């Protein structure tokens, strides 16, 4: 597994270049065929492969395992970027509504509500209208170092755990966020950008060498789309959409500064009222949920519940 040696050898330029080159070839190969809709492939009862299931990610499945409703049926597929993003944001809304330990205090609740309200309002700023109906491409949404097998020269030999692969908008193509060994909500921009540029340069060269290697009906270059995503901030918006636990940190650290240089302390006092009706009642409900959660958690770890 790449994870066995990544931390120790990631500064070896030769090894890193080998990995980046093979990764680029894989991403370019699976993106070459534009797909008709956003979704996941299934094998039907007649044995045919069809793109007819919802775009299932590991994060969505984990939320459902926690009994948080996602409101995305198994047969849901999407033909536009806006409809898909709206449902993803709806999943984030439901996490805040239904996860009992979602908030810590009044301020935390207000800031989460504000971030979700703004994320919904600014969607058009980060996704190109001319790409709203595609192309959609096949993506590996769980490209973790432990899912990448390499040889001693860091050439990729195998990828595993592909059950989370699905068709998504081309602008949601993400380079691995873990290149600098940081969590999704801990990325240092300057440190990450150095490795990102190195990977993009290799991908661009591979794409140029592969004649006729455009993606979709307009022969879009994947490397150009990824570079544009970084320049416009779509990288951060897409990363936030795919991270239920990291959305809020990503929003306040990377997305909000793109729109306003002054991150007003009042954002958590005004915008919650644009996320839900009767915002005060909702905050009170979430605080009660947290108190009940803490009580139940405490009871689970005492020998005699009556002493609690």
N-to-C terminal Cα separation, in Å?
46 Å
**Amount of helix:** 40-55%
In percent terms, what proportion of residues is strand? 5-15%
Give the strand tally: 6
Q: Compute the gyration radius: what is it?
A: 21 Å
Helix count, DSSP H or I runs of 4 or more residues: 12
Class per helix and strand makeup: mainly alpha
Order of helices and strands: HHEEHHHHEEEEHHHHHH
Q: Which regions are unreliable across 5 or more consecutive residues at pLDDT < 50?
A: none
Largest sheet: 2 strands, antiparallel
Strand order of the largest sheet: 1-2
Query: What do the pLDDT scores average to?
Result: 91
Total domain units = 1
Shape: globular
Helices and strands, with pairings:
Blueprint: H1 6-9, H2 13-30, E1 40-43, E2 49-53, H3 58-65, H4 81-98, H5 106-121, H6 123-126, E3 136-139, E4 148-150, E5 156-159, E6 166-169, H7 189-209, H8 222-232, H9 234-241, H10 247-259, H11 267-270, H12 279-299
Antiparallel strand pairs: 1-2, 3-6, 4-5
Helix pairs in contact: 2-7, 4-5, 5-10, 7-8, 9-10
């Amino acid at each position: 597994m790449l994870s066995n040696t990544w931390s120790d050898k990631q500064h070896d330029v030769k090894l890193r270049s080998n990995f980046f080159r093979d990764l680029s070839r894989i991403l370019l190969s699976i993106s070459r065929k534009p797909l008709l809709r956003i979704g996941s492939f299934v094998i039907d009862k007649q044995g045919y492969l069809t793109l007819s299931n919802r775009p299932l990610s590991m994060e969505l499945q984990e939320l459902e395992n926690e009994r948080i409703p996602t409101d995305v049926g198994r047969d849901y597929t999407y033909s536009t970027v806006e409809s898909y993003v709206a449902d993803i944001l709806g999943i984030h809304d439901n996490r805040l509504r239904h996860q009992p330990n979602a908030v810590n205090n009044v301020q935390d609740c207000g800031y989460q509500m504000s971030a979700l309200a703004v994320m919904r309002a600014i969607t058009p700023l980060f996704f190109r209208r001319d790409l709203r109906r595609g192309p959609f491409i096949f993506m590996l949404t769980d490209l973790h170092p432990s899912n990448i097998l390499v040889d001693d020269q860091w050439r990729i030999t195998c990828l595993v755990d592909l059950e989370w692969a699905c068709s998504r908008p081309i602008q949601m193509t993400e380079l691995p966020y873990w290149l600098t060994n940081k969590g999704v909500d801990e990325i240092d921009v300057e440190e990450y950008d150095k490795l990102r540029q190195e990977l993009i340069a290799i991908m661009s060269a591979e794409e140029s060498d592969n004649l006729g290697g455009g993606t979709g009906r307009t022969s879009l270059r994947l490397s150009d789309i990824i570079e544009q995503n970084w320049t416009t901030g779509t990288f951060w918006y897409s990363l936030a959409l795919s991270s239920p636990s990291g959305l809020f940190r990503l929003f306040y650290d990377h997305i909000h500064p793109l729109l306003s240089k002054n991150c007003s302390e009042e954002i958590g006092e005004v915008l919650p009222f644009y996320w839900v009706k009767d915002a005060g009642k909702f905050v009170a409900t979430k605080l009660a949920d947290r108190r009940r959660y803490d009580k139940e958690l405490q009871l689970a770890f005492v020998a005699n519940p009556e002493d609690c």
